[in-house]
Structures
1.
Amino acid sequence: MENEGVGPEWHDVAAREQLDPDFALGVEIQGQNVGLYLLDDQVHALEDICPHAFALLSQGFQENGQIECPLHGARFEIGTGKCLNEIGQHDIRCLPVKVENGRVSIRIPIKVETA
């Protein structure tokens, strides 16, 4: 059986000045796609793959604290990852974020084998 947690290490992914409140920034860390969002001057990181159609959410439409999938309109809250309509199927994961010295770092999910 597998459980997911977050790894202990922080990954430097972007300069804070690269983030725009109107547009997400998609990054890839160790094969995992992550969307970075600037909402109310706070940086948020979410899984970047839509559970419905495997599109990159960071390429979607961002408004009113929500991101909308560019393919079929699944919507998620940026601050919580909460799925806001049925087509999205389920919530997406928020990842830990820190900003230090103008750099954004995140911790990414890892799979842990359990008995």
2.
Amino acid sequence: MEKINISEKLRTFDKYWQSKQVTDFNNQSVKLVKLKGEFEWHHHKTEDEFYLVLKGQLNVELEDDSVVLDEGDLFVVLRNRGHRLLAAQEVHLMIIEPKSTLHGETIKKEIEKTGSESTES
């Protein structure tokens, strides 16, 4: 295993909402993603998601609450909990989640295919 420079990895892409896997361990994916705007409501039936804000401010809306994450803050969305992400300005985010988690475009494609905003994975 070689060291990974997160800043360098973030410079390799500029599209929003497309996570890029940078490594994995113990059947977990470590991903980087750039966000701006909002993502649809969804949940993951069997997986928790770990979010670490590297740059910017992220609002995580939950079914009954919301959490504002600033640079350096981390938050875990527990499995089967509806959530959506909102980023007024560009956010750089590290996500750690099981490899099986549907994420990003995969969720959007599932929503388009099923017509449901509550995607299970």
3.
Amino acid sequence: MAAAARRIYDAGKAAGSERPGRPAGGPMARRTHVELGGLPMADMTSAARGVVAATAEPADALEVRVVPLWGLPLVAAALAGLVAAVASNRLWALDFFHVVGGGLWTGIDLFVGFIVGPIIGRLPVPARTAFSARFMPKMVLLMPTLVIITLVAGWQLARHEGTILLSNSHHSWVVASMVVVGIMAVIAIGFLEPANLGVLFELRKPQPNGELIGRLMRRFIYTAGITGAMQVATLVIMTRLAT
């Protein structure tokens, strides 16, 4: 009888310790169960893994496009309009492309060189990388298009109005404008654009070189500041030619 009673007692104790919602393993297990907010250890491990995965997801999901395909039709339309303006040699069309292209080029250079550049320089590396991955692809298409439109329309406009002739009273100002704009075009295409493409191609690698990206971004910021300062001289020359 005593042995049978002992077996019944042990069976009841084991059943009580395995009741759902009750942690087994003594006081330490109960304490751990309470401290973890009522979640079993396996659930807490899964939750922690989910947090780590969610934190790492933006870096893994960062998709970098060197050339945004949606912008190609816009570039093609702008260049087609420029060709039509040059072929027709109409004053209004040439003036439109030169003023719009030059105004956008000037405004973007000033904005990037004196506002965006200093902000990028103070951002932490992850934020700088994310910003560059979204900002640089648009600049790949935008800036060369504006440079081509401004230079071609400006040259054709100078030929149309005769300001490139030595006898013209504005000839010296036109030459000064061509020199300044030519230097800015070399900087934009020879320095800004390669730095832009270098950042984008580096961001597409499985393990981007942060030091290289930092150097390229500094080059982009410095050259953008230089062209922004030169755009001030362009504004002085253009307003002088307009009077």
